[in-house]
UniProtKB/TrEMBL annotation:
Membrane topology: Multi-pass membrane protein
Species assigned in the record: Pedobacter flavus
Protein name as it appears in the record: Cation diffusion facilitator family transporter
Transmembrane segment boundaries: 7-29, 41-57, 78-101, 113-132, 153-170
Domain Cation efflux protein cytoplasmic positions: 211-285
Length: 328
């Protein structure tokens, strides 16, 4: 089975089993704190189900209608998961406020606490596994699902501490207070996940990727690569698409230009374990480039070389040759 599909299937099965277990604990105790955790488990199951489908779509090969593949669906999956977490937090807070006004009868708290502890440990291990697989396969869906399960774990830990405190003090109203605090944390976590997924859907630039690409180019630059500009990156599921302009000596023939572009492509792909599709537009040099061009024995040099311009995160992203940067 494809690794990403296997990981999310494990998450789905675990989520269903934990949801059933937590609702059993709730019916035993009638505790709003445990209901908080059980409610979030419903979100886990729904989110994992959609995540499974989205990963199935994202692993399909490219076709005429989807020339960049189906990877963008993973951002939508993460958006839905974040939205469900946020809604769950709101519902939990509303239910807990009602519980403060009309406190329920709570029983078997010690049994419920033990069950919640066991489910929290399983969530922790599953969440860490999914985050690891998400990073390994560049899957925001797996990463988001893993972060969700870790959020669920942190919520469980907070609620367990609260239940223990209730058992010690006998103050049952604290059950709802801890539920409200957990609900507020869920709202915050859901918002962050929604924000990340919207950024991906809007092709928000990944600063870490840009910094890494620029660093690789700067550390391995050739004299013939006069400047790099208009550098952009887009993520489509596990795949990354990068395009840029590279200024080369204008007297190079087509075969030489193609070779230089191919070498840049190979250099970038060798620097990462993930697949990167590079689109490079070759620009001819101009006389104004001469003062920072390091090509030795250039037959058409118009100006004396005065110094190399270091490629940075800023000047490689502007849609201008580097001599134009100095005018502004």
């Amino acid at each position: 089975m494809q690794p990403r599909r296997k990981a999310i299937l494990i998450s789905l099965i675990v989520s269903i089993l934990l949801m059933i277990t937590k609702f059993v604990a709730y019916f035993l105790t009638n505790s709003n704190a445990i209901l908080t955790d059980a409610t979030e488990s419903i979100v886990n199951v729904v989110a994992s189900s959609f995540a499974f489908y989205s990963i199935y779509l994202s692993t399909l090969p490219r076709d005429l209608n989807h020339p960049y593949g189906h990877g963008k669906v993973e951002f939508f999956s993460a958006f839905l998961e974040g939205l469900l977490i946020l809604i769950a937090g709101i519902i939990i807070i509303a239910n807990s406020i009602y519980g403060l006004v009309n406190p329920p009868v709570i029983d078997h708290l010690s049994t419920g606490t033990l069950i919640l502890s066991a489910t929290g440990l399983v969530n922790l291990l599953t969440g860490l596994y999914l985050i690891n697989q998400g990073k390994k396969h560049r899957s925001i869906t797996l990463y988001a699902d893993g972060k969700h399960l870790l959020t669920d774990t942190y919520t469980s830990i907070a609620l367990i501490i609260g239940l223990i405190f209730i058992l010690i003090t006998g103050k049952l109203w604290l059950d709802n207070v801890f539920s409200i605090l957990a609900g507020m944390y869920l709202i915050f976590s859901g918002y962050k996940l929604v924000r990340t997924s919207v950024g991906g859907l809007m092709d928000e630039s990944d600063e870490k990727v840009i910094v890494n690409i620029v660093s690789v180019l700067q550390n391995n630059r050739r004299d013939e690569w006069i400047d790099v500009h208009n550098l952009r990156a887009q993520q489509y599921g596990p795949d990354m698409h990068i395009d840029c302009h590279v200024t080369l000596p204008y007297y190079y023939d087509l075969a030489k230009v193609h070779q230089e572009i191919s070498d840049i492509d190979k250099l970038i792909n060798a620097s990462t374990p993930h697949n990167i599709e590079f689109f490079i537009h070759a620009d001819p040099c101009l006389p104004e480039c001469c003062h920072y061009c390091k090509v030795k024995k250039c037959p058409v040099r118009k100006e004396t070389f005065t110094g190399e311009i270091e490629w940075t995160q800023k000047n490689t992203r502007l849609n201008q040759k580097h001599f134009m940067h100095e005018l502004f």
